[in-house]
Design brief:
The chain is α/β, with parallel strands linked by helices. The chain has helices at about 5-15, 90-110, 170-180, 195-205, 255-265, 280-285, 290, 345-350, 365-380, 430-435, 465-470; strands at about 80-85, 115-120, 160, 165, 210, 215, 240-245, 250, 250-255, 320-325, 390-395, 420, 425, 445.
């Protein structure tokens, strides 16, 4: 994600209150109640998919896979994979998700019959080594907090009411430190007691005599951002899979502890690669090489309890996929040159509808088919469309239709215009996520776009979306 340009924030802030007047270029669903996605799905239906212009051949329902058919009726159990953008500008969105997670859980378990698994992976899938992000691995579930801010100043400095950086004020860093301390085995509030001058010593380039007493600076080495945060080995152990059964005692779910653990797990940081590949990450996370087969069938082919994501996938559970990102998807076939003078704008330049047949971006129908195949193999049974629910909280969909580029001149203004700017920062088009959602049957995705409307990250509050996603994932067989 590009460094936020404050002047652009000011220019766009008024426009974020109005929808962008362009509808995603896909066939609209008939009978959608509204753009909030409130229609309940039919979880037992296999649907022949219709195609958007660049999604490839008709979808397969995996009925010819040779794997066992699913049980009837569809299970109340659900395995929920969150794919969270960990690029430079996502600190506000991750914080907001952690704050509102309880809303999602309250709605999810309202019936009292949902047995959930929750895992988190990121959009980080670099083509080469990327030492700036030492924790995230492509498609791997992760639960260790990654609180140290990246390179976007809005995740470091405070901003005033006009969106301008306030020099010497570091509220975002303070919030990150406080959140990290809560994830320690033994939280120590004294670790948050930094003065602004001490924060400046670690955040900004300072003379050699700059010092945080007992930590860094002075006659020793210069202070760094990492000196402000707890050591990585001080965090409590959080499982990579949050299971309802581990948080339930006497038929009561410990929502407070679940929320606290998810807050730490979802703190995936802002040091990830700027070429975000959320769709490919979801496909990779469900591959049997990472899942090791279903948790509850030890004799399944490919079963391996040592696999990185093992314990997340269950044989008969439904599957839900939720994206949180302020950039478009850039999942490509390996032929896209990522390191160009255009930066991450290159992802939009190859996303034009007129270039769909030759674009290096992986076709959305291919990604959908790969996901179904991986889930079927990992579960050791046929997976049907009606068992999968997909959702995305992203920028307003506004597919780029300007001139194609492979290189950009130094100092040349970008042709890519963010679709909004608000308290959560800047968001670019999320049209590939929305069009991916719409390769699934009506009622199996959120949001349902029937009219030009804002993406959820272009709204100051996306908690209503979490409520609706939780509602749509309620137990299908509840009394």
């Amino acid at each position: 994600m590009k460094i936020l340009i404050i002047g652009l924030i000011l220019l766009l802030s008024a426009g974020c209150s109005d929808p962008v007047d362009k509808t995603p270029e896909v066939e609209k669903d008939a009978g959608v109640i509204d753009d909030m996605g409130t229609k309940k799905p039919d979880m037992n239906t296999v649907v022949d998919m219709k195609m958007s212009p660049d999604t490839g051949s008709d979808a397969s329902t995996n009925s010819d896979s040779g794997l066992p058919e699913p049980k009837e009726p569809i299970s109340n159990d659900v395995d929920i994979l969150w794919v969270i953008d960990n690029s430079g500008s996502m600190c506000q969105e991750q914080e907001r998700l952690a704050q509102n997670f309880e809303i999602f859980i309250d709605e999810l378990v309202k019936s009292g019959e949902v047995n959930f698994h929750i895992g988190v992976t990121t959009t980080h899938m670099p083509e080469k080594d990327y030492p700036q992000e030492p924790l995230a691995k492509a498609g791997h579930l992760q639960s260790t907090p990654q609180p140290i801010p990246g390179f976007d100043r809005t995740c470091v400095n405070s901003v005033d009411e006009n969106g301008a950086i306030v020099d010497g004020q570091y509220d975002p860093v303070r919030k990150s430190i406080e959140a990290a301390v809560k994830c320690m085995r033994t939280p120590d509030a004294s670790l948050t007691a930094f003065t602004n001058e001490e924060l400046r010593c670690a955040v900004d380039i300072q003379p050699d005599n700059c010092e945080i007493v007992g930590k860094c600076g002075g006659a020793g080495r210069r202070c760094q951002m990492s000196d402000l945060f707890p050591p990585s080995d001080s965090y409590r152990t959080i499982p990579k899979v949050l299971k309802a059964s581990d948080y339930t005692s006497n038929n009561t779910l410990d929502v407070a502890q679940l929320k606290a653990d998810f807050a730490c797990m979802s703190m995936v940081g802002t040091r990830g690669h700027g070429i975000e590949k959320g769709l490919s990450a979801a496909v990779a996370a469900t591959d049997i090489s990472l899942t090791g087969g279903p948790l509850d069938q030890t004799d399944a082919p490919g079963y391996s309890a040592a696999s990185a994501n093992h314990g997340f996938i269950r044989k008969d559970a439904r599957f839900a996929l939720v994206f949180l990102t302020d950039e478009n998807d850039c999942s490509h076939d390996g032929t896209l040159i990522e390191e160009t003078s255009c930066g991450d704008d290159i992802c939009e330049y190859v996303n034009r509808e007129e270039d769909a047949d030759t674009s290096p971006l992986i076709k959305l129908e291919t990604l959908r088919s790969d996901l179904l195949r991986n889930l079927s193999v990992s579960k050791n049974r046929t997976v049907r469309d009606g068992e999968i629910f997909v959702a995305s909280l992203n920028g307003t969909p506004d597919r780029y239709d300007g001139p194609a580029k492979t290189q950009c001149m130094p100092g040349e203004p970008s042709d890519i215009t963010p679709t909004c700017a608000n308290a959560l920062g800047i968001a670019n088009s999320g049209d590939r996520y929305i069009r991916f959602l719409q390769t699934f049957p009506e009622g199996q995705y959120f949001p349902n776009y029937d009219n030009p409307t804002q993406g959820w990250l272009c709204r100051s509050d996306f908690s209503p979306a979490l409520t609706l996603i939780g509602e749509l994932l309620e137990a299908p067989n509840a009394d």
